[in-house]
Specification:
The chain is of the alpha+beta class. 32% of the residues lie in helices and 26% in strands. It is elongated, with a radius of gyration of 27 Å. The termini are far apart.
Length: 187
C-alpha cells in the first residue's frame, strides 16, 4: 500500500508519471549527440559555387555526346581491379580517370588513374586497367570515366548485385541535349 505521508520523491505515482518525460529528454540528448558527430557529406554550404559547377558538368556531358564517347567497366570478382573499355572520338594517349563514388559517404570515394593496356585496340575500343582499393558495401555506386583535362565524362549507376559490369554514357537529359545542340550549332 502507498505511504501518503512519504515525501514526493518517494511516491511511486510521481515516478510513473515522470518516466515518459525523462525518457524523451534522454532521447533528445542522444539524438543531438548523434547528429552533431555524424558528417553529412551530401549537403554543401556553397550553393552558388555548386550551381556553377553543375553547369560545367552539363558541358562535359554534352561534349561526350558530341564525341560519341561510351565506356564499359568490368570489375574482377573481389573488386580489387577493373578493366575499362572506352570508344568514341578521344585521344587514347591522354590520361583518363576512373571515379567510384559512394552514394552516401564521400570518404569511400576513389579516383584512379587509368593505365592503357599493352594490348592493341579492339576495333574502336581502347582498353585500360585500374587497381582499386577494396570497395565498401553499398547497394549501388556511381561510376564515372573522364579525361584528366575535364573536357568530357561518361557515367552511370552500378548495382553490384546485378553483375560486375556497367556501361557508361553521357547523361541524357534535356539540359545536356540543349547544350550539345548549342555546341554543334556554333561549329
Amino acid at each position: 500500500m502507498a505511504d501518503n505521508n512519504a515525501p514526493w520523491f518517494k511516491q511511486t505515482a510521481f515516478w510513473l508519471l515522470m518516466m515518459g518525460p525523462i525518457i524523451v529528454v534522454i532521447a533528445g540528448f542522444v539524438t543531438f549527440f548523434v547528429a552533431k558527430h555524424t558528417a553529412n557529406d551530401m549537403v554543401t554550404d556553397d550553393y552558388y559555387k555548386e550551381g556553377k559547377h553543375i553547369n560545367m558538368q552539363i558541358e562535359r556531358d554534352a561534349e561526350a555526346i558530341k564525341r560519341n564517347i561510351v565506356a564499359q567497366v568490368l570489375f574482377n570478382d573481389d573488386g580489387s581491379a577493373a578493366k575499362v573499355f572506352v570508344s568514341g572520338d578521344f585521344d587514347p594517349e591522354m590520361p583518363l580517370n576512373l571515379l567510384l563514388l559512394h552514394p552516401a559517404t564521400q570518404a569511400y570515394d576513389q579516383t584512379i588513374s587509368l593505365k592503357k593496356a599493352a594490348v592493341p585496340a579492339s576495333g574502336n575500343k581502347t582498353e585500360y586497367t585500374a587497381a582499386l582499393q577494396p570497395l565498401k558495401a553499398a547497394v549501388h555506386w556511381y561510376v564515372r570515366v573522364e579525361d584528366a583535362t575535364g573536357k568530357w565524362r561518361v557515367e552511370n549507376k552500378w548495382l553490384p548485385s546485378q553483375g560486375r559490369a556497367v556501361a557508361l554514357h553521357a547523361a541524357d537529359n534535356v539540359l545536356v541535349n540543349a547544350a550539345a545542340s548549342a555546341a554543334s550549332a556554333v561549329q
